[in-house]
Amino acid sequence: MSHELVLVLDFGGQYNQLIARRVREHKIYCEVKSYMTPIEEIRAMNPKGIIFTGGPNSVYMDSSPRMDKEIFELGVPILGICYGAHFMVYGLGGIVGAANESAAAEFGRTECIFDTNSPIFSGLKEESIVWMSHNDYIEKLPEGFRAVGHSSKCPYGAIENREKKFYATQFHPEVNHTEQGFEMLGNFLYKVCGCKGDWTMEEYSQTAIREIREKVGSGKALLALSGGVDSSVACKLLAKAIGSQLTCIFVDHGLMRKNEGNEVEAAFADSGVNFVRVNAGERFLGKLAGIEEPEQKRKIIGEEFIRVFEDEAKKIGKVDFLVQGTIYPDVIESGAGDAAVIKSHHNVGGLPDYVDFKEIIEPLRLLFKDEVRALGTTLGLDEKLVWRQPFPGPGLAIRIIGDITPEKVATLQEADAIFREEIAAAGLDRDINQYFAVLTNMRSVGVMGDGRTYDYTLALRGVSTSDFMTADFSRIPYDVLEKVSVRIVNEVKNINRIVYDITSKPPATIEWE
Ligand code: XMP
Fold first, then answer.
1. Model-level pTM?
2. Distance 511 CA to ligand 1 centre (A)
3. Backbone region of residue 468 per phi and psi (left: phi > 0; alpha: psi in -120 to 50; beta: other values)
4. Confidence class of residue 348 from pLDDT cuts 50, 70 and 90?
5. First to last CA, the chain
């Protein structure tokens, strides 16, 4: 794809993805690459600008990330942020002071004064709050540089070499706490790098459709559709590009939420692709009968999913391409190291390695999640699927504690649907990142219509989180919870008590199993 490209060179900072997001919000395509990327590769990418990220190290440590100084000879504008600023100063012959030699360290909200004659601060207020997070500091500027921003502790809060188009900030313009940070990045991209801003989802979809057509030719493609945002958007895109040359297999394991299987089918059945829905509910429930242990449930579902998919794929025979809904964070976060397995996640979009195909197509591998959603909207995908909250591959099986029966699945589907309906009615559905009901295995005594009941306790869970690695329980207003509780105990059989889960992650996880 021939877009304007800005390259973010990753020196190990925690905001690297955020920088890329900000650049894309300015409608400029951006990629994150390691600082170890060979200079020839960088040159071949022909970037309009380069941004060095922050990083946890000091430039003088032996182990600190450094790259070939040729980067400064490419004739490409560079913005260095925090560690990236230190690396620029150090690499061009200036001096970076170690924090223990001065009291220059700054953390958090800091007032900064800017020279608005500098292109990166042009049109901005002369004084505003920035977000600092540094021990080391710029002590002496390299030749050709001058200060264009300072704070009370930091005379070189921002520096420039206008002739070479090198800029650096000690603070982090990419975080929200830096008041004019977004505009500063915009100035760098548009005023310094001369970008035009050609990264829009309309443009992306047209280019992607053209490229998919060229690649696939008259071949056949196969996609495992889960109903999740990523595979749904990939399906819609491929449907536009190659129509009936695509076959989507949607394995309905009978553990979806209420009506969800039908919604997925309705969104794709008339889209021109060969849509195969496999109603495998009985098959899955048969395998799960009597199983109580969470990991065992996950394994059974994962394996059975592969079996069902395999049976269907065999009917289609050899395909040329396998389509996957991989998105950009999956690409840059690959290699999670030695982290302990808390739960074996089963992702129905995963690579089925037994399917006979020539090549993989990953049409979303350049996109962040919100861009995938924007693309879905551009392509006319049903809003329900565009804004679908994350739903685990094993579905309701891991939200029914203990053994799973068809009756329990039906009970949970009804209760969960009421919860979701009321959250949407209260206008909270886009604020709470994930919310659902869990059928606990506990029964307790209640009284209804003067009679004794001995029924199940239902737990409600709602969390706010940005990455699903940590999460806080959502403060859902009591009157909303009350409405949900009254409706569920009145409308759903076998439930006589509702509790709200007030644990965060950690120590709990988001799902109960
Ligand atoms: P936990 O429960 O680990 O969940 O805090 C974190 C996020 O992952 C989702 N989740 C899964 N997603 N397959 C998936 O595709 C799985 O097996 C799975 N288990 C949990 C969970 O819904 C939450 O968003």
1. 0.78
2. 7
3. left
4. very low
5. 42
